[in-house]
Amino acid sequence: MASEVNSNLEELKTSMENLNVQQQPSSSSRNDAASGNGVEVTCFTEVVDDVTLHLQIIHLGKQIYAWIGCNSGKLGHLYAAASTRPNNTASVTCVLGGNSDNSGTGIARRLVLKTGLNIMLASNIPKNSPLLEANAEKKLVEKLIHLGKDIVTVMTEVLSNISPPPGAVASISDASPVHYIVKIELFSLLAKNAVEKYESGVFKAGGYTWKLVLYPSGNKSRNVKDYISLYLAKVDASSLPLGWEVHVIFRLFLLDQNKDSYLVIQAGQERRFHGLKLEWGFDQLIQLSTFNDSRYGFLLEDTCMLGAEVFVRRERSRGVGEVLSMIKQPTAAFKHTWKIENFLKLDEKRQESQTFSSASEKWKIVLYPKGKDFGMGTHLSLYLAVDLETLPAGCRLYADYTLRIVNQVKDRKFDLSGKAKHWFGASTSESGWTRYVSLDYIYQPNNAYVIKGICIVEAEVNVLGISSPF
């Protein structure tokens, strides 16, 4: 037996070292006649995310030899994996190439768990390439299924019931999630007690804080039913710099308690978290019928376990911008009355009322008794001004306002009124009229706008929108 294994290993080394990688469609090349011993050799090439993967499968009865080449024909590390008793787990050792900490270790172990066969796997996939590793394993498994190998296990059936977004990858892992695990006991009581949404505790990964958001019966706000929905959400976004964004790759896990391995759903590309998008995940993580079926091991004795891994790839703060917030139901307009005494004795200097508040901002009325600019010497000039000392930097206010000079004797319909809308900000802090009313008209005693040297001016301000920088 030992001599047979050594012979097979030597045959594998010779086959892989002499492999001439060719760009061809995913097709099998069977060498049964040449070998005379039932050996099948399949070579194929796949391009995934601009990376060329060369793959070779050699099937020898109860053993499978496989090679994964990333952009080259280099052999890479060689691993041997086999099922161990009595727990039906898998043991892996590195035969060639150094320490057994490369990406091929996990692939070899999972192939044993899926097929029940002994596995020899060579791989030159770079370390710390989880997405590439998952894609390579997926292509390898798809080919084995296509070739009719004994690999369509219960877990493969599970993968067929997953409906992740386009580009997402479903795989199997025997490694626990490194960042967070949630164990839920009496899972069925969530639905019975009308718990539509559960948010996990906060955990840290990549220097940021996160949480998991679970919809045990599907996210109804997105019309999801008969599925479990699971998302990764950013926490405490308000504490981050203006314009922040974080690009991450994340994995969501479900434990198969029968095999002590995890179903892993991974987004097929980086996801960008920012102020307007704080949550990413999967509306249809897994069908409830599959999740509840004890054969799959996800829910045993009404208990399940899920988890997450989050890897921050890059982060940045964007350039300056702004947020425009229109007010759907503005509050009633605020009215301020300014009583000006000794009005007839005022010269041409600018006059200002006391500040008053409307929509949490400060305002004031500005008056030029002898006019300003084109109204100088002929008209009274009247304006509404926002108080720049209290207005936040970069903020602008869209306001509907009315200014009026009160008729102190006759009906209020004789008031001198002006109404307008304006964007108030640092560059345009005042709005009004340089020729509001002629001086001859307002000074006539019979018109009753100045009585005993007193003139009364009113302002009504209603803020309709706010533009703020970020």
Automatic annotation (TrEMBL):
Under Gene3D superfamilies, the record lists:
Apoptosis, Tumor Necrosis Factor Receptor Associated Protein 2, Chain A
Q: Which GO terms describe its biological process?
A: proteasome assembly
Q: Which domain of life is it from?
A: Eukaryota
Looking at the record, the residues that make up the MATH domain are 177-310, 333-461
- PROSITE patterns per the UniProt record, alphabetical: MATH (PS50144)
InterPro entries reported in the protein's UniProt record? MATH/TRAF_dom, PAC4, TRAF-like
Q: One Pfam family, short name please?
A: MATH_2
* CDD domains, per the entry: MATH
PANTHER family named in the record: ANKYRIN REPEAT-CONTAINING PROTEIN-RELATED (PTHR46162:SF2), TRAF-LIKE FAMILY PROTEIN (PTHR46162)
Descriptive protein name: MATH domain-containing protein
